[in-house]
Amino acid sequence: EVKLVESGGGVVQAGGSLKLSCAASGLDLWFSNYYMSWFRQAPGKERERVAAADGAGKTTITRSVEDRFTVSRDNAKNTLYLQMNSLKPEDTAMYYCAAGPTWQLYPDGFYCGANGAYWGQGTQVTVSS
Questions:
Q1: Dihedral angle sign, alpha carbons of residues 62, 115, 55, 73
Q2: Per-residue model confidence (pLDDT) at position 57
Q3: Cα separation of 20 and 122, whole Å?
Q4: How far apart are CA 71 and CA 82, in angstroms?
Q5: Distance between the two ends of the chain, CA-based, in angstroms?
Q6: Could you tell me the pLDDT band of residue 113, with boundaries at 50, 70 and 90?
Q7: Beta bridge partners of 61
Q8: Mean predicted lDDT score pLDDT of the chain
Q9: CA distances, 10 to each of 77, 95, 118, 128 (Å)
């Protein structure tokens, strides 16, 4: 059974930091073969792309957070990370990770493709003003 388990969310004041983790298990392929991505969705809003990392460490960060967020992965630990600094109330959302064997190119960079992708249950990030 494939599992993606996000952790590290919580409540933080504006200007604070959080580091999210996404631990993968049960994948069909080696973890390094998967394009890993972070998405977020705030109440009443559409899901938004945030960041991605391929198995070689190449990364994508969406422009709205590129000066504050950093994505990384540890293939030996089957884990994807999202370091979030200088958090703002507008960063409040449920953050999801996804793993896909293919990639898809968007205007802000590559993210894991929808075909064959696995999703986690999400971790809530709440930034208070």
A1: positive
A2: 87
A3: 10
A4: 5
A5: 40
A6: confident
A7: 51
A8: 95
A9: 23, 11, 23, 11
